[in-house]
Request: fold
Amino acid sequence: MEYNNNNKKFIVPLISSTFFEENKTKYKLAEFIKKSQKLSMGRYCFLFEKKFANLHKVKYATLFNSGGSANLAMIQVLKNLGKIKDGDKIAFSAITWSTNVMPIIQLGCKPIPLDLNPKYLNVSSEEIKKKLKLHNIKAIFLTNILGHCGDMIKIKELCKKRNIILFEDNCEGLGTIAYKKRLGTFGLMSSSSFYVAHHISTIEGGMVITNDFQIDQELKLVRANGWDRNLKEKTKKKLRKKNKIFNNFEASYTFYDLAYNLRPTEITGFLGNLQLNKIDRIAKKRENNYKYFNNYLIGKNDVNQIYTKHINLLSSFAMPIFFKSNKLREFYRKIFEKNKIEIRPLIAGHIEKQPFFKKYVKNKFTLNNTKKIDKCSFYFGNYPQLTNIQKTNIIKCLKQIL
Reply:
C-alpha cells in the first residue's frame, strides 16, 4: 500500500502515522542517531533478524532495504541455486502487488496468475489443481492479501506432493495466525515489509525468513553485492575453496553470484527492534477493529462474506468490502468518499490489466473470480491508532449498506 502523505483532507486516512506510538518512537530514534557512530548495516540489523526469526519460530531471517527487494532476492536466490531456471513457470496470486510479479518477468521466468477463490479472498488449493492441468509450474508465490489466506495446509501438501516450491509474500499478513501457525511459515521462505503503512514500520525495510540454511546463506550473498562478508565461516570456506580464493585480501572484493545492493541501515534495524516488541499488541488491535467493523457487514445482502474460520488471529492490514456487483461498489464508494474516508482498490487489482503486465506478458488467462473481486471491492484503513470519532464515521457508512 502506498502511503498518501496528503491525508489531511480525510477524516479517516489509510494511515494516520508512520509508527505505532509515534512520538515515543521518534524521540528514541533521534537519540539513537545522535549517539550512533555507524549507521550502515550492523549489530541492530542482525539483532532484528534474530528476533524476527524467533517470533516466527524459524531458524533464519535476512533483513533488506524494502519488501520489494525481499521479493526480488527470493526469486534471484532460487535462480542462483538452480531451483528454477530461465523459462520456468512461476504461479502467483492474481491480485497482488507489482513487485511480486515484476521479478518473475525481470529474471526470465514466466508468470502464471492464479485465480482467487471469493470465499477466502485468496488463492485456494482447487485453483492450483486446475492450473497444474494446464501448466508445468515449478514454483508458487502466494500473497497473503490484507492478512487473509486460503486453505494453506492443503496448498502446502499439494506443493509437497507435486514437488513445487512454495513461497509467500506476507507483507500484509504480519501477525496473522492460521491453522495455529504464523503466516509466512508455510513455504520454503517468505517476505515481509516494514514500509510506513504496514504493521510495523522501519520507514523502508523488508525481511525474508526460512528454515533452509543454504537459502539463508544465498539470501545474504544476494543482499550484499555477491560477496561473502556476512556468511557463516563454513560457507565462506566452501566458496573460497571452490573458486580458488586463498586469502582475505582477494576475498574482500570477490563476487560469487548474481546479486544486488539491498542492504538496510542501522536505522532500519533499530526501528525494527523497537517496533517488533509491540507486534502482538498491534495485531490484536487490528483484529479487534476488523471484528467490530465486520459485525456491521454480517447478513447484508449487498456484500459477500469473507471466510475466516481457519484463521486463529487476523492481523488485518486493511478492511476489505467485497460487494455483489460493480454497480453496488460504485454506489457505496461515493458514500465513503463523501464522508471523507479514504478507500483504495484491492491492492494492485486484477494483474492482467496492469500496463507492465500487458507489455511483457502476451498470454491470456481465465481469471473470472479475480475480475469480479477487482471490480466489486475496495478497502479502508485499519490501524491501532483509529480514534472513536474515526470509527464512528466508518460505522456511519457501514450502516448504510443494505
